[in-house]
Each structure stands twice: as structure tokens, then as C-alpha cells.
Amino acid sequence: MTLAPNVFDAEPIPEAARAEIDRMLRTGDLFRYTAPHEAPVTLLEHDFADFIGARYALAVSSCSAALFLSLKALGLPRDARVLIPAFTFAAVPSAVVHADCVPVLCEVGDNYRIDIADFETRLDDGIAAVIISHMRGHTSDMDRIMTACDARGVPVIEDAAHSLGTTGAGATSAPSGAWAVSVSSPTSWSMPARAGSWSAMTPTWWRAR
User: Fold this and answer.
1) Alpha helices in the chain (DSSP H)
2) Disulfide check for 103: which of 23, 88, 96, 118 has CB 3.0–4.6 Å away?
3) How many angstroms separate the CA atoms of 196 and 63, rounded?
4) Average pLDDT along the chain, 209 residues, taken 10 residues at a time
């Protein structure tokens, strides 16, 4: 029997990363607005966007904030219905409610992935947006999800907090939806510390919003 991987212990921070953290702390240049150009946060956003193949990336304080801002940038009306998986983190329905929308749950299979048949049944004319959470690295079938949503013109937000670094269709960490949000935390596979979150997007006007 194959043992499940340890998802509780964080990996050690490499020596080079610790040295860079110490250098930044000594300069005090930790924020977006402390340099006229190429501030550390700006450079990190550019590197992250390149890493996942998005046009833009925006660093924010938490994954909850990234989800909330993504929903608000879509301009959804009050009480808009947002389809989310039943197996997700509490921040997902909380962000939906915080954005003055209504969460609608769809079933998840024994493999922790979206039950596509139930998803397609619930994706009716009353759904204004979709959030897909890839919990514990179990990525759902984004090809079928995007096909169904594109056919109805429904925007998709990917909660990639637990799937940063996974691959699909030959691309590393590439978001399938309009937005992909990812949190920097030990359980997010790629980042050493819960320093913030990301909202990666494609269209220019969403970055402006």
C-alpha cells in the first residue's frame, strides 16, 4: 500500500532564500510603494505571471481577498449565484457571500474532484460565475468545465491554492479560467511561507479593475 504524502510539514527554506530575506529586511524595502520602479512585490508579480503563463499577476494579502476581488471585478449583481464545489475551504463560500453573491454547491466525487455530471446539471441559466477549487492537488477536469462554461458565457475563477505547480495540457500551472488565485502557504506545494496570495488574470481591463 502506497503511503499518502506528508502534507503537514513545510519544506525547509533554502539557504539562498534565507539570505535574500535577510537582505530585504535590512533594506526595509518590503512593499509595493517603496521604490519608483521594480519594487520587490512588482518583481515577484512579474516572475509569478511568467511561471504560470498568465499575462498579469497581482499580489494581495490572502487567498480570501483574491477570491473576493476576482468576483467583484466581474461586476456581478447582488445575489448573483456562484457555483462552487462542495469540498472546498471555508474561505471560498465566505468570499462569495462577502461579494454579495450566493454560493451554490455541486457534488464532488470520491477522488475529491468535481462530479462533472452534477456540475453540468447545476450549471443552469441562473449561474453567473463558477469557482473551481483544486483541493489538495486534486485538479478537476478543466477541459470539460471550461467547455460547459464557455458554451453559456459563464466566467470561471480557479482557486489554485492547493495546485500551484501542477500541469495540464502541457503547461505548468497555467490557469484555464479567466482568473486563477493561489495562496503562498506550506500546503500549496510551491511556496515556503504564507506571505500572501495571487490573482492571475488574462484580459487587460480586469487588471485595471
Assistant:
1) 15-27, 40-52, 63-73, 91-98, 116-122, 142-152, 204-208
2) 96
3) 7
4) 70 90 87 79 83 78 84 92 92 94 94 92 94 81 89 88 62 47 41 38 47
Residue 147, phi then psi, degrees to nearest 5? -60, -45
- How far, in Å, CA of 69 to CA of 143, rounded? 25
Domain ranges, ordered by start, for the chain: 60-208
Closest CA to 54 of 188, 191, 175, 182: 175
Task: Give the C-alpha separation, 204 to 26, whole Å.
Answer: 35
Angle, nearest 10°, between helix axes 63-73 and 91-98? Answer: 40
Separation CA 5–CA 76 (nearest Å): 39
pLDDT at 50: 82
Q: What is the pTM of this model?
A: 0.75
Question: Could you give phi then psi for residue 25, rounded to 5 degrees?
Answer: -60, -35
Q: Specify burial of residue 179 (Cβ count, 10 A radius: 0-12, 13-18, 19+).
A: buried
Q: Dihedral sign, CA of 62, 99, 200, 120?
A: positive
Amino acid at 59: A
Task: Give the pLDDT confidence score for residue 187 in this predicted structure.
Answer: 36
- Alpha-carbon gap, residue 151 to 158, rounded angstroms: 18
